[in-house]
Amino acid sequence: MLLSVWLTLFFAAWAISLSPGPGAVASMAAGLRYGMWPGSALVIGLIGGYSVQFIISIIGVAAMIKTSMLLFTVIKWVGVTYLVYLGVKQYRSPVSMVRVDVSKMPASTAGKLFLQGFLVDITNPKAAIFLLAVIPQFVDTSKPLLIQYVIIWFTLCAVDLVIMLGYAALAANLVKFLKNPHTTAKINKIFGLCFILAALTMAFMSV
């Protein structure tokens, strides 16, 4: 994988992970209730669920490559369009606040927290759709695929791990910050633009 391609992937990974979603909310809830290190078991569970979703997605990508390169190319452009759509949707999302409910957290055992984190990501159908849109943008079918998949997986998961641990560690301050609806509106606009920029960068690479 070319360094320029990897840097685009790295940028996209940060835009993906920093955008508040179910994983971020779960991480903040765990951090608020248990603290960073006990809550990190939930974060590891999130990464486990994310990895399973990744495997499911690359099976779909591999099937497309085997079936038709034309189909694979079409999916790449559909993926770019989908990312632009997500960016516009997030940019225009209504003013709201992030709600963190610690009452739904399980008893403080690493196993239960891991399982909850795993289930949060594995039961999120949007994650698989999103990965199916992202992965083809960084795959060069003229080169060995396995090492490319490993690089993409490691980059996405490493960035997500850092961000989710950050959410858990700074939970109290982040919750106060994100409870301001106008603040979350500004965040939505910033990450909406990040999604669009990432999509356009991918489109440029795909030409």
Describe this structure in words.
It is a single chain. The chain has 207 residues and is mainly alpha-helical. It has 9 helices and no strands. The longest helix has 32 residues, at 36-67. It has one domain (3-176). The chain starts with a helix and ends with a helix. The protein has helices spanning 3-18, 22-34, 36-67, 69-91, 110-122, 125-134, 145-169, 171-178, 181-206.
SS class: mainly alpha
General shape: globular
Strand content: under 5%
How many structural domains does the protein architecture include?
Answer: 1
Low-confidence parts = none
Please give the share of residues in helix: over 70%
CA-based gyration radius: 17 Å
Average pLDDT across residues?
A: 77
Largest sheet: none
Oligomer: single chain
Q: How are helices and strands ordered from N to C?
A: HHHHHHHHH
Give the helices and strands, then pairings.
Blueprint (H helix, E strand, L loop, with lengths): L2 H16 L3 H13 L1 H32 L1 H23 L18 H13 L2 H10 L10 H25 L1 H8 L2 H26 L1
Helix pairs in contact: 1-7, 1-9, 2-3, 2-5, 2-7, 2-8, 3-5, 3-6, 3-7, 4-6, 4-9
GO cellular component, one term: plasma membrane
Main location: membrane
Keywords: Cell membrane, Membrane, Transmembrane, Transmembrane helix
